[in-house]
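Attaching the record inline, Q. Sequence:
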Amino acid sequence: MRIDLKNISMKFDDVTAVDNLNVTINEGELVSLLGPSGCGKSTTLFMLAGLYRPTSGEMLFGDKLVNKVEPENREIGMVFQNYALYPHMTVLKNIMFPLKMAKIPKKEAEERAKKMAELVHIDHLIDRKPGQLSGGQQQRVAIARALVKKPKLLLLDEPLSNLDARLRLEMREEIRRIQQEVGITTIFVTHDQEEAMSISDKVLLMKDGKYQQFSPPQDMYDHPGNIFVGQFMGSPPINMIPVSVDMETERIALSGTKETLGMPSRHKAAALNCGDMVLGIRPEDFFVATENQDGITARVALVERIGRDTLLSAAIGDKQFRALVQPDFQGKVNDFVKLGIRNDHFHLFDSETEKNILELKR
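Structure, as predicted:
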């Protein structure tokens, strides 16, 4: 089912939880609603579920306006953060429950529930009760129960937040497998950018109820539309350094230092009418440069070897930043190191609007 949100807003008294949201989610896509706490992602999910009615705007499922359609008539399945399983019922009866409410004959309901248990790999647990299951198994029951009605839209509200790190990784892979096998349009709410990047066809990033960017996750990482998007996506986080541009020398000067970088041709036209800017460089885009390579010279503040990565904390004057460098890096604290940028891969943001100057041209 295709979902269209047109100028959707949701207000609670004086608070605007979602502000004029415009998004189209295509049939069969898995879309993550991502952002910090209070950004409006769960409110958007609850509007899709019919638990909230939008203050203004239009919400369409296919060609049908659903603003005033009750939740039970929306053809949706929903998995909550706490799974909400019935503790006194077996796994099979939990999965069958929506079919019982829909007055599906018992034999057919049982067959459909067993097939769904098989799909989510819990067919060997159908006689157990929720209290006898692990967190990951309980989650599979909740997903099976949501899907057994054959909904056209699956809504997942932070379904991995109660699981430990290893189980989260396993279950996000399972959610993606199940979603692709069933081919259902799915909306997945999370505050974890790694989670969103790993399983989504597209990510909708929100802040303070407002749309920030909606695109495939790798595109959002590689082409952040503004400073907030650049900072939210990526770990270790992107380095943001105030700079100015000298169009005569075609170099970028790090404010308050003597360090400069060459400006790639793709930035030149975009930078013409910009004043002060912010330079964004992801830690993995640095490398240790030789004397004759372009780069910036910084003092090493800390060297952390984390498995296969070497994370360098460095400083230029009072400006701190992080760089992921080659594992055999031999520098020590207080050494000076010259750092180049791979393939001139960095971003320039306008200080006033906070927008990526290149993304304005896309």
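The domain at 232-350 is CATH 2.40.50.140 (OB fold (Dihydrolipoamide Acetyltransferase, E2P)). Residues 313 and 322 are 5 Å apart (CA to CA).

More tomorrow.
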